[in-house]
């Protein structure tokens, strides 16, 4: 189980996130929803070490980890790609493995790219990839090494239908293996399909935590934000 307790990162003027507390169980996707500026990206970035939490505790499977998830245990897909444009897709995957201290042979990296539909452009530089190809590569990097937790910020951005279907298959397999995920998406119907619970952020705070049967995410959003 992932536990985040009173996580907080605030900027001058009061923007940011927290204190936020949440839990995610093995095999679960917890949705994180809110309007622009609600603090979703700030929370995700801080948990994954892109900027520091100012307060809070992160626990994983009962072990206290301080204020962030260790890179070797966490795969991260940011909303905006942070892949180096001069690297090829294979080099980007290799770099991700090195940064997360994952020992993977070249053949294994190639097989991983194939699984995520990236084999056709493995030797193409990131700057020459389409938005959808770049997103697929980012997803491949996030799931590299079957991390204990994946944090997915708007994972469907730029994906075509084939990419969306591939993502759902990969996510289902990952959850069946006991993985856990935090996921934001502006497509609330997607969260209804993959999540059992959703937290709604407002001004950086948890306004509600709701179960999401069919249509539940949209109804909860309208109740909290009145739009």
Set down the secondary structure blueprint:
Elements: E1 2-10, E2 16-24, E3 29-33, H1 40-47, E4 55-60, E5 63-64, E6 74-77, H2 89-99, H3 106-115, H4 131-142, E7 149-153, H5 161-176, E8 180-184, H6 188-194, E9 197-202, E10 205-211, H7 216-225
Parallel strand pairs: 3-8, 3-9, 6-7, 7-8
Antiparallel strand pairs: 1-2, 1-4, 4-5, 9-10
Unreliable stretches (pLDDT < 50, length at least 5) are none
Q: Output the CATH topology.
A: Rossmann fold
- Strand count: 10
For the residues shown, what is the average pLDDT? 92
Number of helices: 7
Trace the largest sheet across and list its strands. 6-7-8-3-9-10
The CATH architecture can be named as 3-Layer(aba) Sandwich
Tell me the β content: 25-35%
Based on CA inertia axes, which overall geometry fits?
A: globular
Share of helix, binned: 25-40%
State the separation between the terminal residues, measured CA to CA: 33 Å
Instruction: Give the H and E element order.
Output: EEEHEEEHHHEHEHEEH
Which CATH class is shown?
A: Alpha Beta
Report the biggest beta sheet as strand number plus sense, adding barrel if it closes. 6 strands, mixed
Task: From the alpha carbons, calculate the radius of gyration and give it in angstroms.
Answer: 17 Å
What do these coordinates show?
The chain is α/β, with parallel strands linked by helices. The chain has one domain: Rossmann fold, CATH 3.40.50.300. Helices cover 33% and strands 26% of the residues. It has helices at 40-47, 89-99, 106-115, 131-142, 161-176, 188-194, 216-225, and strands at residues 2-10, 16-24, 29-33, 55-60, 63-64, 74-77, 149-153, 180-184, 197-202, 205-211. A 6-stranded mixed beta sheet has the order 6-7-8-3-9-10, sandwiched between helices. Strands 2-1-4-5 form a 4-stranded antiparallel beta sheet, covered by helices on one side. Strand 7 (149-153), helix 5 (161-176) and strand 8 form a beta-alpha-beta unit. The longest helix is centred in the last third of the chain and has 16 residues, at 161-176. The chain is globular. The mean pLDDT is 92.
């Amino acid at each position: 189980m992932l536990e985040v307790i009173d996580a907080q990162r605030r900027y001058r003027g009061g923007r940011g996130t927290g204190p936020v507390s949440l839990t995610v169980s093995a095999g679960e996707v917890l949705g994180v929803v809110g309007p622009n500026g609600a603090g979703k990206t700030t929370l995700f970035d801080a948990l994954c070490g892109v900027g520091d939490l100012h307060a809070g505790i992160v626990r994983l499977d009962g072990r206290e980890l301080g204020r962030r998830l260790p890179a070797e245990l966490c795969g991260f897909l940011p909303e905006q790609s942070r892949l180096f444009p001069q690297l090829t897709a294979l080099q980007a995957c290799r770099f991700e493995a090195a940064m997360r201290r994952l020992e993977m042979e070249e053949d294994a990296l190639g097989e991983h790219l194939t699984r995520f539909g990236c084999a056709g452009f493995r030797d193409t530089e990131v700057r020459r990839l389409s938005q959808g190809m770049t997103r697929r590569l980012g997803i491949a990097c996030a799931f590299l090494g079957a991390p204990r937790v994946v944090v997915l910020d708007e994972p469907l951005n730029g994906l075509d239908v084939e990419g969306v279907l591939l993502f759902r298959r990969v996510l289902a397999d990952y959850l069946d293996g006991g993985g856990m995920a935090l996921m934001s998406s502006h497509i609330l119907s997607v969260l209804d399909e993959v999540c059992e619970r959703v937290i709604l952020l407002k001004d950086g705070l948890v306004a509600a935590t709701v179960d999401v049967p069919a249509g539940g995410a949209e109804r909860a959003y309208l109740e909290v934000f009145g739009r």
